[in-house]
Write a structure and sequence with these properties.
Mean pLDDT is 76; it is low at 93-98. It contains four helices and four strands; from the N terminus they run βαββααβα. It starts with 8 loop residues before the first strand and ends in a 7-residue tail after the last helix. Strands 1-2-3-4 form a four-stranded mixed sheet. It is 40% helix and 22% strand.
Amino acid sequence: MWNDWRDICISEGATLRDAMHKINNTGVQCVLITDNDNTFIGLLTDGDIRRSIVASGDVDSLITDKIHQGLVSFVVTPITTASVGKQIVTAKLKDSPN
């Protein structure tokens, strides 16, 4: 369960395994990828993770590798994570389209 948009954020240096745990623990079917400055840089869905694992079999690969391989659903020009998180909380996003 999640109560705050920060609960669904994950560092770009995290692994797919880390993202799977966060998705499992929050019940939200995506995570917000942030950089070291906590700036939103992309959205990783459970479908992105599934496709990546099918392609490589590696759950311990870094999320940044998937961004560079084009396997992340949504990559943006950096904006503040808070603004994205607040929009998700307002919309009560449960799932993102794949």
